[in-house]
Amino acid sequence: MATLPMIPELLRQLFRTPATNAFPAKYLPSSVTEFLAKVGRGEAAIHPPVPVPKDFRGKITYDPTGCTGCSLCAKVCPAHAIEVLKDEKRIRIYVSQCIFCSQCTDICPKGSLAMSDAFLLADENRYADHLIVE
Amino acid sequence: MSDDPQKKMTPYTVPIGPTHPALKEPVMFTFQMNGEQILKADFAPGQTHRGIEWMGMRRNPVQIVHLTDRICGICGVSHSLAFARAMEQIMEIEVPERADYVRTIIAEFERIQSHLLWAGVAAHELGFDTLLHLTWRVREQAMDTIELLTGNRVNYGIIQVGGVRRDFTPDQFPAIEETLQYYSDLKSKLLKIFLEDKTIQMRCRDCGVLSYDDALKLCTVGPTARASGLNMDVRVDYPFAAYGDLAIEPILPDAYMGETRGDVFDRIVVRLLEVDQSVDIIRQCLDRMPAGEVIAEPKLAKLLNQFKKAHGEALGRHEAPRGEVLHYVRMDGKEHPTSWKVKASSYSNLMSWIPMLEGEQIADIPIIVASIDPCLSCTDRVAVVRSGERGIMTKEELHRLSVEKTRRLSA
Ligand code: SF4
Ligand code: SF4
């Protein structure tokens, strides 16, 4: 009964399209910056990022206009990612600390917070401008 | 090792770990070897203690629920569910029935992806990387469904004290059905590829045997216990969530193989069959799922206030993919728990390594260690500190030593 049942499966796989997502460029360009510049000029095409599902929890967005500084959001934030600026009645969110639980958006009485579908957030500096939302 | 140079050097000691390419999890093994054969095995966990319970005792339960998602990288719902059930018992919250079904369905999808992940790792440990890629490819279907249902692939964030945070929408059901069909169709293929393969039989049959008695005495749980013939499953023995309404039988290897040997092979059999069992459970849930609310208290601010009135202690249990997980919580009328203790499933299973490993060969270590599907970052709850010494060198201490040596040499 001992056989090699994986062999037919492997042969079949030869004729299938790969299951993995495509990299932005098909082959690693000799210079990434040059390639991106080319993409900018419309001379080269890039594989678009994989679409995210509906109601995906990505980078947080904050609309300060309605915010009353009630600090409820900071109270339920598991990661202590929200700083309440008491005097200005505003908050500041450190995205590098956020764990994308979306709990603050649930509790906010003014609907000032929401989750976007941005997920390409890697940066060497955890306090980079795009990682601090205020 | 003996200090006497006259003495023969056997048994000699082979340390493996704390981090080692052959182990997917950080744990320190010390083997007494005679040639290729393991005479004695010992291990020391505690390398990945992160202080999550300490963090939890300074946070309110609504915050902790999302910390529990992160105790384990695979079980995104098991810990949350066990913790939420402990809180619900303390606060006497009645979870809406539909929420119980949503919880059950997500928990079973989690079991599917976890067991497939494990099967891939096991294949990889045997050097069968094509099979690793195949299982991880088919695992993606479950991951995608979880992402669709909860919003994220790994840290689902779906559990809340008193229910779940998201209900299924009608447009999601076709996708669920598609996934279930996908795994039903796959069942015979996976069983064939894993169980009829020559390599897997050679390496896993009668390797890493855990006898029924040892499994019982060492209090093993989950698939590790069932593969040794122990008929136990929290879902059946102490039904919770929707499991009480469903027809479930613990999966034992003799039902499929005709006998129980308690070896690595039997652990593969149990886990593969449980993938199919999970598909069946989800089907049953979809058939019976009642309509209605999915959370007892939708207003988070009100829930926060109720925590301040909560007094008492409770245990929350759940049959995670690796076995029973248990959360103990004590609330004393403050917003944060006075005590919170997590017992991950691997905690109960680690001791079974010793009888499994002794007598086997050094090359069998990776597959035997992997065969209980250990999850050490879940398990490590303490770091031993003796009179201020942890026995671990930090980067700073190493640096200091290095500077001292330079000074010594140049003096
Ligand atoms: S909960 Fe909403 S209104 Fe209150 S501080 Fe946070 S963002 Fe502002
Ligand atoms: S999404 Fe969660 S972790 Fe992030 S800021 Fe909101 S509450 Fe904090």
TrEMBL record, chain A:
It comes from the Archaea. Transmembrane segments: none annotated. Pfam families: Fer4_10. Residues 58-87, 89-118 form the 4Fe-4S ferredoxin-type domain. Keywords: 4Fe-4S, Cell membrane, Iron, Iron-sulfur, Membrane, Metal-binding, NAD, Quinone, Repeat, Translocase, Ubiquinone. InterPro entries: 4Fe4S_Fe-S-bd, 4Fe4S_Fe_S_CS, NADH_quinone_OxRdtase_chainI. Gene3D superfamilies: 3.30.70.3270. PANTHER family: NADH DEHYDROGENASE UBIQUINONE IRON-SULFUR PROTEIN 8, MITOCHONDRIAL, NADH-QUINONE OXIDOREDUCTASE SUBUNIT I 2. This is 4Fe-4S dicluster domain-containing protein.
Automatic annotation (TrEMBL), chain B:
Residues 126-381 form the NADH-quinone oxidoreductase subunit D domain. The keyword Oxidoreductase applies. Transmembrane segments: none annotated. Keywords: Oxidoreductase. The keyword Amino-acid biosynthesis does not apply. It holds the Pfam family Complex1_49kDa. This is NADH dehydrogenase subunit. It comes from Methanoculleus frigidifontis.
